Amino acid sequence: MGNLNKEIRDGDHPDITEERLKSTFDTHKMAAQIYNSQRAADRRNEITSAVLKIPELQDIKPLPFLSREEKVEEAARKIGILSEHLYDLVNVNDGAELYHLNNVVIGGEGNPLALHGVMFIPVLQAQATDEQKKKWLYRAMKREIIGTYAQTEMGHGSNLRKLETTATYDKATEEFVLNSPTTTSMKWWPGNLGKSTNYAVVVATLIINEKDYGPHSFMVQLRDENTHKPLPNIEVGDIGPKMAYNATDNGFLKLNHLRIPRTNMLMKHVKVEKDGTYIKPPHAKMSYSAMVHVRAHMNNTMAYFLASSLTIAVRYSSIRRQGHINPKEPEVKVLEYQTQQHRLFPHIARAYAFSFAGAETVRLYEKVKKDMESGETELMADLHALTSGLKSVVTYLTMQGIEQARQSCGGHGYSMASYISEIYGIAIGGCTYEGENMVMLLQLARYLMKAAKAVKEGKKVEGLVGYLSAPDNRHSLIDRTPEKSYDTYLKTFEHIARQQIFRAFDKLEKMLTSGLPHSEAWNKCSVELTRASRLHTRLFIAQAFARRVHDVVDFHIKEALDDLLHLHLNYELLDVASYALEDGHLCGEQMNFIRSELYRSLGKIRPNAVSYVDAWELSDMELRSVLGRRDGHVYENLYKWAQNSSLNRTDVLPVFEKYLKPLMMSARKNSKL
Ligand SMILES: CCCCC/C=C\C/C=C\C/C=C\C/C=C\CCCC(=O)SCCNC(=O)CCNC(=O)[C@H](O)C(C)(C)COP(=O)(O)OP(=O)(O)OC[C@H]1O[C@@H](n2cnc3c(N)ncnc32)[C@H](O)[C@@H]1OP(=O)(O)O
Ligand SMILES: Cc1cc2nc3c(=O)[nH]c(=O)nc-3n(C[C@H](O)[C@H](O)[C@H](O)COP(=O)(O)OP(=O)(O)OC[C@H]3O[C@@H](n4cnc5c(N)ncnc54)[C@H](O)[C@@H]3O)c2cc1C
């Protein structure tokens, strides 16, 4: 039968093997839950093994030792080699396989084709006519051209209706004139725009006969296909170094009265006819599809970043020994400390929860995408609300979890040898891109306020907000019912979200009745509104977790997931308990119960801790972390890693003769005086 934990190998650090031998579940079967099928989990490992056999695909040295230019070059080099092997390594129509291949070979710091795959191709798939697809999409898929999605400007990212780049229709020539009239109108931020791409879908404000029709998407060739020189009337370049993600050339773009044919506007759903007649799309926000695409997938990418950091932290915590619990016994693994467990385990549960919520979101996204192809738009609002809330909550909680993982590694966590700071830098970009988190929470709040209004008017609401019209208990039944059921927890989360949604609604209504204009009242309620959105979203995450556990058939996997869910519900509830204490829905006695359940959960999780992270099956190659090594041999490899430092090339650096020696000499001279 073999070991349940599939990472056990001869020669590994005994402390980590000891952990793995305690596993109560098969880590590869658990991977099937995380990646949504056994086949997908198998494929990940097959792809990793195949990549390991291709020497040119390995990192030339640890990425933190590369300069920015070397990072950009290294990512491009690997993309070139990957292109030769692509069809042997993955099914190119499978996004998850491509994403995994990218993570193993290149990592999260980016590559020249990042935005090409994540936004350029999806926007063409969703918004180009068949004719336009023939012209650009198929070439893009074969990588004959490389593109990006250029929407954000220096002056505007969130408020798309105020984009300054204009696309003015010239009926006489049947062209659009694209123009960046001011410094702030320059496109600023689009990934790979700076140096890699030769095409972009540019989002610009459409003007016909001086009338503003709002943001629309246009295909623009930026560079010559052979020389890669920028074309006339186009200024393009890199925006400079960022907190992280520095293998990517986020760029700027200035368009100087650039003329493009009318047929370069993406016209699957919306049209401008030769004579300038504007034909509306079936839904006003259909052109936002590329953003919704990324938001829908971000739960899973965030879960991956969080799981990566936790894999590093938990593995390291199992070989790091410091201090005593029993003074007569040897120093303990730091994982034995309750504070360490409390710092890490709830985030493990969140990584699983985000992955399960992510799977449900992607399913809804796929359905809406299909509906939209035939002009059906009914579920777009639901999807927009769900993805807006999730992207905000999940990125924020991921940020917290990664930082806790870093701190839990003590001093070595601060070294780039842990690689956690890079993962953190990449992940927190997600709090901003694809919609600044507060802005997106407020988008969800609009949807919630509509639902609250309907309920107040006596209508029944359904689906994601169905709980707003469901019966509510005045007091939580946690600890008050004989049977142990997650339902009581979920009902408490529902109560909290419902109360906050109506609290925000009542406040808003009161201000409106007092005569405040809607936008002012909205602003004055906006903190309460974002709270409502967060609680609604956290309820959804907890429900998605519970739904998954409910559906699992394998006994040992179900039991292990059940333990994580139990931890999740108790930890999350404590985190938001003030809302339930406020109206007496929970009492002090119940709080004590929840706390004691949380501590019990930590103990229950402890023996499986390494296996829970191992189940993500993240190879050493993709983790790029000395602390997170599968074999647990951290210390000797930390020393080896440091040898890469260019400061160690010579024993004495030139700065000694130049600055330090004169400094010390003159200090010595002065002290003799
Ligand atoms: C397997 C594949 C793997 C894929 C991997 C995916 C991800 C990987 C992640 C990382 C990988 C690495 C590379 C990627 C890295 C970075 C990429 C970043 C790219 C970008 O960073 S790219 C720019 C994104 N930039 C934004 O994200 C701007 C945010 N700003 C907005 O998005 C709008 O500005 C908004 C929505 C705030 C306001 O827009 P607005 O002013 O036009 O509308 P308004 O507020 O008036 O709302 C009127 C009515 O429209 C409804 N509504 C709005 N949007 C809708 C929608 N989409 N669907 C259905 N309904 C919608 C409302 O709900 C309302 O409905 P109602 O009236 O009923 O309440
Ligand atoms: C790593 C990274 C990659 C990116 N890639 C791309 C890309 O490929 N293509 C692209 O087009 N763009 C890209 N962007 C840009 C990104 O989408 C925008 O930065 C993002 O949408 C936020 O917009 P902003 O910068 O205008 O923020 P701002 O809106 O200026 O945010 C500043 C503050 O104002 C607040 N605020 C703004 N509006 C409101 C409001 N209505 N109500 C309440 N508060 C508000 C925000 O909450 C925030 O606190 C990228 C950004 C990053 C960091």
List unreliable stretches of 5+ residues.
none
CATH class of the largest domain: Mainly Alpha
How many separate domains? 3
Our Rg estimate from Cα atoms comes to 27 Å
Bound molecules: ligand 3IX, flavin-adenine dinucleotide
Largest sheet geometry: 6 strands, mixed
Q: CATH architecture of the largest domain, please?
A: Up-down Bundle
The rough form would be described as: globular
Structural features, described:
There is one protein chain. The chain has helices at residues 14-21, 27-34, 38-52, 68-89, 95-105, 114-127, 130-141, 289-319, 338-373, 380-408, 410-414, 420-428, 437-456, 486-513, 518-524, 526-551, 555-575, 577-582, 588-605, 609-614, 620-623, 635-642, 654-672, and strands at residues 147-150, 166-170, 175-179, 187-188, 199-208, 211-221, 234-238, 251-255, 258-261, 271-272, 278-279. It is α+β, with helices and mostly antiparallel strands and 673 residues long. The strands form 3 sheets. Strands 1, 2, 3, 5, 6 and 9 form a 6-stranded mixed beta sheet that branches. It is built from 23 helices and 11 strands. It is globular and about 90 Å long. The mean pLDDT is 97. Flavin-adenine dinucleotide binds next to strand 1 and helix 13. It is found in: Peroxisome. Belongs to the acyl-CoA oxidase family.
Mind sketching the topology for me?
Layout: H1 14-21, H2 27-34, H3 38-52, H4 68-89, H5 95-105, H6 114-127, H7 130-141, E1 147-150, E2 166-170, E3 175-179, E4 187-188, E5 199-208, E6 211-221, E7 234-238, E8 251-255, E9 258-261, E10 271-272, E11 278-279, H8 289-319, H9 338-373, H10 380-408, H11 410-414, H12 420-428, H13 437-456, H14 486-513, H15 518-524, H16 526-551, H17 555-575, H18 577-582, H19 588-605, H20 609-614, H21 620-623, H22 635-642, H23 654-672
Parallel strand pairs: 1-5, 2-5
Antiparallel strand pairs: 2-3, 3-9, 4-8, 5-6, 7-8, 10-11
Helix pairs in contact: 2-3, 3-5, 6-7, 6-8, 8-9, 8-10, 8-12, 9-10, 9-16, 9-17, 9-19, 10-12, 10-13, 10-16, 13-14, 13-16, 14-16, 14-17, 16-17, 17-19
The site of ligand 3IX has 31 residues, from helix 5, helix 6, helix 8, helix 10 and helix 13.
